[in-house]
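Box 3.1 A note on notation
Throughout this textbook, protein chains are presented in two layers. The first layer is the amino acid sequence; the second is a token string describing backbone geometry. Keep the layers aligned when reading.
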Amino acid sequence: MKLEIITPEANIFSGEAKSVSLPGLDGIFQVLNNHAPVISALKEGSLVIELEAPLNEEQKNDMISVDSPEKITVFIKGGVAELNQNKLIVLAE
């Protein structure tokens, strides 16, 4: 699925992901390829992302913690996530 993580200051990440775990208001939930459409508010926590391909140099920045070549973590203070037609957009603080 296509993933975009955006804050008011910058575009944090844009790329292809196998799965994303998100800190929803009622707990952590995960979305995978071909997941049903969803909109959710997010609380403070970590987005754990399994990538389709290793993170390249152009995608790296200070907001991304690299756990392994194909697994990254992004800490957020809150936000909203929308998944529709295999495209996940996270508007984060």
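DSSP finds no helices and nine strands in the chain. The chain has one domain: 2-92.
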